[in-house]
Design brief:
Chain lengths: ~425, ~425
């Protein structure tokens, strides 16, 4: 038996706004940041669980304070007991009645719970000497559904239905794991498309993306229509007709704006329109989806939790579902969302980039392929070539695919030197 | 000209869990708390702006930290300029791109913005020597719509439509203000209905409520069906057939549970069923509303913001809209919600109780009656007889009505002695 002896947090901020990396129509000058947590035990294995919440600068201190507020619930706890019942851990935190008031199940406190839950998953995977995707993909259907809280989901997905889907996917797991290891998981790149880049840089990065083997790129839009048309022309000319181009409005529009704006961009053959409006607006997304058809609507990086995703699916408000590694309450809730997407037959193309999001979210897509949806058709994980050097297990992306990580853990562990160098001191 | 010289926060907690005051099916042991903010200026009038966020205990420190994170934006600012453009103030905070990432527009950071916005409204009302309801009710329709951000609302309500409604209500303002001052604003009481109370206490408090002039009471339900039936029988016997009894499940159910449970409670003549399920689940509320008709569905105390209320109205998911004084980003956003409710012809019955919620939210209902909806039909403000003694301008409720406050301010100012006595020290 071992116990948790410390829960340390760090407020880590990278000065990305200096290069306009990450600039879009709503976020002109983000400083990519992480509210970081490290859970240590008294076991003699030296293993720690690491987790984080990605933010874009100001307020990272508030997010860190929220994680710190959870520490008293962890210190002194029996590690084996916690790790043996990760579904119970999720419920213990999410259903703490007093903390729940601060959301419920959304915003700063919900993301803080996600960081802690993910740090425990990191520790569990390291103890099992497995990358997280493989740890999850080796669990039985029964163990997987035990991770998920089906409260509020039963009008769309019951525990029994989830179990049935997971059991149906079981026979093909070994084959798909072999395919994953051989071929990797498809990626697309947002590297060329930030709003703050010059036309020349856009053109150059588009050509580099194709040369690097990507078959889809993404451009930020929604600042100025004439600029968007000019930039899309540059991008389309650079990549040719066979590469898909998605666009991302980062919540910029109301319903009518979105439909009108997209009518102007449609001639450039748009792979999807992402975050056209408020991420909480299921009915607006549904109206936009009808209005811009056949262009698919994508959303989810700010999706507050499983209840919002359930409604987006029920209302046919999206046809590309974008999970995010640190927006919801951790791995468990993202598994609930993957199960919902599988039930509705909607493809999942995770949001990534930021700080450590690529490193983290690939585990979920790979688990999904092996054990849940069983397919990569139309699916791909976002990729942005920023800040990977700070991670102990950096993503390996080449020829347009993510290569499955083999090192143990959830991928979120940052080098101690990076944490020290970018620690924010106000 | 004067400038803001300090923004002080306090973590104030009342040990209400000792009496089971406030206990319901989701919140067995709340410690009613306030993340409190005081804004001081260098003007020689000694006036301060006070605001708060109501929480139920753990995490109040996180909420206080979030308010504190906003202070640097306020210190040194020109007070007259801020108070002259409260719509601009709202947008400045809500559209801060980096802080926005932490919601967006929901949870801890959004409520923190609400506390600051409300503290500025308090200062503005005190400088005008008016209670907030009257300050708002004296603004022109143009000034009122300038307070509101119509982004994401235009598919349901445009600025022009809001302006038209406010202009149509203008001629009757003086009459209705006189009515309000003469008759007060209807109240209902939740005092009898907490789950943790004994049957004897329930019976006694129900009878007291009727004796005190209330025409509606509310009971918590959703813990155990047999208990609910027994308690409703006690309550109905105590109050007789003419007093309305609403019930509140505090998010306890999934869709099917809610419909089935309410079928068992319907014989007791239920005034409304409140928060039957997740507050973010528009589609589930709509399904429940169809399933429990003609019992009205009420929700809103955890409504994340104007986008959620807009959808609840569009989907006919509620027929009683419950604003809350500290859940959204302050007075401005609640005005947006009041305008939406008026557009859809839905009655507003605010959530109150907690710490200072009665004191604060009455201003919104009174403003709504005088200048927006122009009616009190079917409308009433929740009342709970807790903790009022800690406020400088405590609510005056008698004969089942709130009496309109005449003292300047937003009602949130707590006595310095109370703040000192209940300051939480970990």
């Amino acid at each position: 038996m071992s116990t948790i002896i410390s829960v340390d947090t760090s407020d880590i901020r990278f000065p990305t706004s200096q290069q306009l990396d990450g600039s879009d129509a709503m976020n002109p000058d983000p400083d990519y940041s992480a509210a970081y947590v490290r859970i240590a035990t008294d076991a003699d294995d030296d293993l720690e669980g690491h987790g984080l919440v990605f933010t874009i600068g100001r307020g990272n201190d508030v997010q860190t304070a929220a994680i710190r507020a959870l520490a008293p619930r962890l210190i002194g706890r029996d590690v084996e007991e916690l790790l043996a019942d990760m579904g119970g851990v999720w419920r213990e935190f999410v259903w703490d009645s007093q903390l729940r008031w601060l959301g419920p199940e959304k915003g700063v406190m919900h993301m803080a719970i996600g960081a802690v839950v993910n740090a425990l998953w990191d520790l569990k995977a390291k103890r099992a000497e497995l990358p997280l995707w493989r740890l999850l993909a080796q669990m039985t259907p029964e163990e997987i559904v035990d991770l998920v809280d089906f409260r509020y989901l039963s009008d769309a997905l019951t525990r029994d239905e989830a179990l049935e889907m997971l059991r149906a996917a079981q026979p093909g797991r070994a084959d798909r794991e072999a395919q994953l290891l051989a071929n990797g998981y498809p990626a697309y790149t947002t590297t060329p498309g930030w709003l703050g880049y010059s036309d020349e840089k856009l053109d150059r990065l588009c050509r580099e993306a194709v040369a690097d083997g990507f078959t889809q790129i993404k451009l930020k839009v929604g600042g100025d229509l004439d600029d968007d048309i000019r930039r899309l022309k540059i991008a389309r000319d650079a990549v040719g007709p066979d590469i898909r181009i998605a666009v991302d409005a980062n919540q910029r529009w109301d319903v009518a704006d979105a439909i009108e704006w997209m009518a102007h961009l449609a001639p450039f053959d748009i792979a999807w329109i992402e975050e056209p409006t408020s991420p909480d607006d299921v009915l607006a997304h549904a109206a936009i989806a009808r209005g811009v058809a056949p262009i698919p609507v994508a959303t989810g990086e700010h999706g507050g939790g499983r209840v919002m995703f359930k409604q987006m699916l029920q209302a046919e408000a999206l046809s590309v579902l974008q999970i995010d590694a640190t927006r919801v309450a951790g791995i468990n809730e993202n598994i609930a969302i993957l199960l919902l997407a599988a039930k509705f037959g909607v493809r999942v193309c995770p949001h990534a980039g930021g700080v450590g999001l690529c490193e983290a979210v690939q585990h979920l897509s790979m688990f999904d392929f092996v054990a849940v949806s069983g397919t990569v058709e139309g699916r791909m994980i976002e990729y942005v070539n920023h800040l990977h050097e700070h991670f102990v297990i950096p993503t390996e992306v080449s020829n347009g695919v993510y290569h499955a990580p083999s090192a143990p853990g959830n991928g979120m562990e940052m080098h101690a030197a990076s944490r020290a160098e970018y620690e924010f001191r106000g």
